[in-house]
Amino acid sequence: MCGICGFSSHNSNLSNQLSTLEQMNNSMTHRGPDDSGYHVDAHAALAMRRLSIIDLATGHQPISNEDGSVWLVFNGEIYNFQPIRAELEKRGHQFKTKSDSEVIIHAYEEYGDDCVDHFNGMFGFALWDSNRRRLLVARDRVGIKPIYYSYFNDQLVFGSELKAVISNPHVPRDIDPIALNHFLTLEYIPSPYSIFKHVRKLPAGHRLIFEDGRVRVEKYWDIKHDPISLSEQEAVEKLTWLLQDSVRMRMISDVPLGAFLSGGLDSSAIVSTMSEASAVSPQTFSIGFQEATYNELPYARAVAQQYGTIHHEEVLQPNILDLAHKLISHLDEPLGDFSIFPTYLVSEIASQHVKVVLSGDGGDEVFGGYDTYVAESIARTYQYLPAVLRQKILPSMLGAIPPQPSKKGFINKAKRFVEGATLPNSLQHTRWMMFMNRENKYELYSPDMLKNIAEAPVETTLGNHFSWAETAGFDPLAQQQFVDTKTYMAENILTKVDRMSMAASIEARVPLLDHRIVEFGLNLPAHLKMNNGETKAILRRIMADRLPAEVLNKPKEGFSIPIKHWLRGPLKPLMMDLLSAETVSRRNYFKPETVTRWVNEHMDGKINHSHRLWSLMVFELWQQSVLENAGKETAKA
Q: What is the DSSP string of 233-289?
């Protein structure tokens, strides 16, 4: 695992730009504390930070081909590099290292840009072909590893993290109001947007070619509609093999390896499969909470005991003021997901024992595990109720009931469902993944902010972005899975896991997001995923004799924290500071009177505004920790 960065120009001579490259690379030391490397020539500058996982002795980057005409920096892992290498050797290619990095170079020489089609892995890489004066940048199929880029004045700048890109003093730092609107709606910023107007994210499954001074972005992979025609038993056997093979591939490592264990079905399935694949008991890592409805440590312990893992756990205390500042700076751009805290802390625990962990992320998208999928199926009947009942009476009745202290519960779920059901049906299940509607925004946004987003109403923009047309042929459940895989998973879940694991300098691998499993899962018949209200039906069947009954049968809780309570307690001073009327007025994005009212309503327990308030806090913290600090660093340079 590494961080990569660099820049290229068609016309300018970059030979004297090493100091700028070093400045960019040093911003990502946490991603690769073991090593760093640089290559600069007249038209390209490449750098990397390395976390040594495979080929510890000879895996230094940047790495070149035999004659030094092709150079590579690479972040990630190619799990099938050994069979690819064997095939390339048969074709006459000669290797000087045992690393997966070198395979990318020779695959490019053999297959050109289509080399990405041969890789099973997680990756973001940049390959400079000096003979053709051509830069190829690629991101893995599902978006496990990130790539940001900016093109201006004949120069392309790229990096694994946004902070590396904006460490280049020539990159503009104007905030994009459309991206900010997306963030406040979804709690993340979907690609190709970034928080900055002049910086973009390379979407998952895409490659970028910079040649002759022009940038071209191409999609090289998508989830094709290819319905599975196997019997249920055959589907179970096929998925069992895919799961075992995916885990086996991701257990290849030259350093100690373990697993995150939340106590949920997905991470428990990974630990079960790891235990069956190795004679050595894996190390497992868990985070819990004092609040009973948020704490899943008993389930994690049950799995750890069943498989005799070397188990490590910790209870997260709400003394997270300093941690909030630290983690926001690692996010690069605003991300409202509360679970950054437990994800970082479990990564920090793991980093004391291992350098690689396997994670259960992706199971909800691939096997239909989200409550929103259930909500959407209910909504198909709910929509036949009279409009006045759906749009006014029920929302008013449930709005009068105070939010309940439990994590979910019937009342909280009902309030969320009715709120989402007032949004357009065309948004499908994303209605329950939106945290501000149009009415909220007219209350919140300043006149300038409303003017800046006038040409892109949130419903229209989201409808275009989610591209439901791309899901033609899929059944309704698979359509929702498709959209989540392309958006929420890639830009929220995987962003969170990448940044928080890298902040602790460990590598997180996600076996359930092997592209073969993703393609198989989305093309399974719906009843093998969601059956009579039971989610992830096929995975539960595979694990029926492998996991404790309480783990198999427990409802989905999600990996979150009691933020709604903490905002009334230990996080109150931070909230009052970040969302003070003075601070809000100075920024001129939001109406201070609305923010103050939301704070008071939340503190009084009338309305749970935790998602909205936390997102506003994150945005202000980000401006202080990232945006303003970047400006100071540039001034020093």
A: HHHHHHHHHHHHHHHHHHT--SS-EEEE--SSHHHHHHHHHHHHH-SSPPEEEEEEE
